[in-house]
Amino acid sequence: MVNARVLVSDPLAEEGLAILRAAVDVDVKTGLKEDELCNIIGDYDALLVRSGTDVNAKVIEAGKRLKFIGRAGVGVDNIDVEAATRRGIIVANAPEGNTLAATEHTMAMMQALARNIPQANASLKKKEWKRSKFMGVELNEKTLGIVGFGRIGREVAKRANAMDMKVVAYDPFITKERAAQLGVEMMSMAELFRIADVITVHTPLIAETKHVINAKSIATMKDGVRIINCARGGIIDEKALYDAIKSGKVAGAALDVFEEEPPTGSPLLTLDQVIVTPHLGASTVEAQLNVAVSVAKQCIEVLKGGSAKYVVNAPMVPPEQAEVLEPYTQLAEKMGRFAIQTAGGRLASVELIYGGELSAYAGSMKFVTRLALKGLLDPILQQPVNIVNAEYIAKERGIKVSETVTEEANGFKNLITIKIKTDKGEETVSGTVFFKGRSRIVAVDGYTMDMIPEGYVIVSRHLDKPGVIGRASTILGKNNINIAGMQVGRVNPEEQAIMVLNVDSEVPAAVMDEIRSMPGIFTATFAKISNELI
Q1: Is 500 left (phi over 0), alpha (psi -120 to 50) or beta?
Q2: pLDDT band at 383 (very low <50, low <70, confident <90, very high)
């Protein structure tokens, strides 16, 4: 069991609750008003929601213990992600759990729209037999335009291709080559709007996508276009859509989501050409089970000190790269922790250099950078620092952060170098990972070494003369401090050298003062490299 409390404020599948109850203390309290949630959230370490709970800045501020906010579903527009990031709270969703449910609902809505099935069903149940009134259209050889080519968009494309539709898509993050492999042509949104017979949207609701379908864009579309939204309310300007349907420009629409839910006052509900469902895209038994299990497992992992699989407010390492990069994330954090303690002073700037074969992973190094920043900031700040808020805190404090990727690695296969500047000076630390994840710090300020980045260390700059190291060792021995390992680096004999001692226990300040007072010692610093020692 993990010593933590979790609040579930929206209905969650029993399978997910069972996973939580086996590991943590869980309370299920649904239907809470904002003030009620604010009054109790301070007692919890994690909050799990669906779409019903508004996790705004006020709620987040009241959640003094919160470490994790989980959304059992894809969208996180009901969570103030920026406020959570400022607080260092991990926000995660479950993007894969309802992919097929949303895909199948989209296909069902498209076919129902094309053949007027809901309207015909309602008419016949009123004992009417009006076949000619519900003349439909075939989807075969029609052009389907998909706005947003993520997981759901790609699954919709597969099924549309099987129906012999021509599929085109817009997504700023998908290459034409990748789309072509799936039988889809990528194009601009403007071009998609011009040629599509049916348009379906599958994007999150962000500033760039709000009202992306509006009066102006509808005017560029084909006469008789059909529009589907099973993604997020607000992507379509509902007034513009209503006007376009009334005028005949748009033949019909199928909507599962709305700008205001429930949309009881929406004029779209008065139109026969519009078919609607009450936000059912993810409402299958299988989807609700999948998202509940996913978010529950992520919650437990975070509360145990691990990471969530689908963090939305931190950079992600692609799963296929995780095995390669994970050892470097751990090394970068330890190097940062070591560098800031040995340099001392107020941190002004950080430069991270990724060399050798790491250059092939340039797009994923932001994850490693944030761990390095966590290591640098943890020992000097009172507030919690993690991968979520490390970059934000650095920016807030005016710390300049830069990244460089190069094929040069000073003879190593891979190399990470951290260069920091403080108001007391500069420090440069380089490290690498050898076979089977064996990590080492291999250089400090140009002095080469083979240091294990673990535990307690003493770093001294001293005169390279006989007896200096011996006297330091004698002082440690006199105070019952065992030396676990020693590294010495030098450039020229009889000049300044560096010594790094791994020791088994914390070194009292008085002992460090005694070492610093020795003849030949220029500086001596004690550092704790492991996170749990800080």
Answers
A1: beta
A2: low
Phi-psi region of 123 (alpha: psi -120 to 50; beta: other; left: phi over 0): alpha
Element housing 380 (H / E): none
Q: What is the rounded distance in angstroms from the CA atom of residue 392 to the CA atom of residue 236?
A: 32
> Residues, the chain, total?
534
CB 89 within 8 A of CB 308: no
Taking CA atoms, 408 is separated from 49, 339, 524, in Å, by 47, 22, 32
Average the pLDDT over 425-453 and give the result: 89
Quick one: CA torsion of 113, 118, 119, 125, rounded to 10 degrees?
160
**φ/ψ of residue 457, rounded to 5:** -140, 155
Output the six-digit token pair for 246.
Answer: 């009334």
Residue that is written with structure tokens 């919690």 in the block: 384
**Beta strand pairing status for 5-8 and 250-255?**
unpaired
**456-463 and 425-433 beta bridge pairing:** unpaired
Give, for 461, the enclosing helix (H) or strand (E). Answer: strand 456-463
Catalytic residues: 232, 261, 279
pLDDT tens-digit series, residues 152-178: 999 999 999 999 999 999 988 677 888
Please give the pLDDT value at position 531: 57
What's the average model confidence in pLDDT over 465-484? 89
Q: What is residue 534's predicted lDDT score, i.e. its pLDDT? A: 47
CA torsion, ordered 375, 376, 380, 386, to nearest 10 deg = -50
